[in-house]
């Protein structure tokens, strides 16, 4: 499964384009975000992606979960979204 990492500075439309491409190729993707700003951008990107893939008859589902990631040698808790077609 392809993992897309989102930061607070990520452009939601750019993330949405990448997410739509991964979904068209693989049918499922994972988005990881650490921090409130990054989670905000990730949720916006998922909403925009729904608009991109809806004309192709794809309805998205996003399943949120916690994930442990290591950043600069430090363990952090991330929010991950498993995004797939319903």
List the helices and strands and how they pair.
Blueprint: E1 2-6, H1 12-26, E2 28-33, H2 36-53, E3 60-71, E4 74-85
Parallel strand pairs: 1-2
Antiparallel strand pairs: 2-4, 3-4
Helix pairs in contact: 1-2
Model description:
With 86 residues, this protein is an alpha+beta fold. It is 38% helix and 41% strand. The chain contains two helices and four strands, in the order βαβαββ. Strands 1-2-4-3 form a four-stranded mixed sheet. Strand 1 (2-6), helix 1 (12-26) and strand 2 (28-33) form a beta-alpha-beta unit. The longest helix has 18 residues, at 36-53.
Mean pLDDT across all residues, rounded? 92
CATH fold annotation: Translation Initiation Factor IF3
Could you give the order of the helices and strands? Answer: EHEHEE
Strand order of the largest sheet: 1-2-4-3
Outline: globular
Helix content: 25-40%
Q: What is the CATH H-level superfamily?
A: Alba-like domain
Strand content: 35-45%
Q: Can you name the CATH architecture?
A: 2-Layer Sandwich
Tell how many strands the DSSP assignment holds.
Answer: 4
Count of separate structural domains: 1
Number of alpha- plus pi-helical segments: 2
Instruction: Output the structural class.
Output: alpha+beta
* Termini separation: 17 Å
Q: What is the CATH class designation? A: Alpha Beta
Brief synopsis:
This protein has 86 residues and is of the alpha+beta class. It has 2 helices and 4 strands; from the N terminus they run E-H-E-H-E-E.
């Amino acid at each position: 499964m392809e993992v897309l990492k989102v930061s607070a500075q990520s452009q939601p439309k750019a993330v949405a384009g990448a997410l739509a491409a991964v979904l068209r190729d693989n049918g499922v993707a994972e988005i990881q975000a650490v921090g409130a700003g990054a989670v905000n951008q990730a949720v916006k990107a998922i909403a925009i992606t729904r608009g991109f893939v809806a004309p192709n008859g794809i309805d998205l589902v996003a399943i949120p979960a916690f994930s442990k990631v290591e950043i600069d040698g430090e363990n952090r808790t991330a929010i991950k979204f498993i995004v797939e077609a319903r």
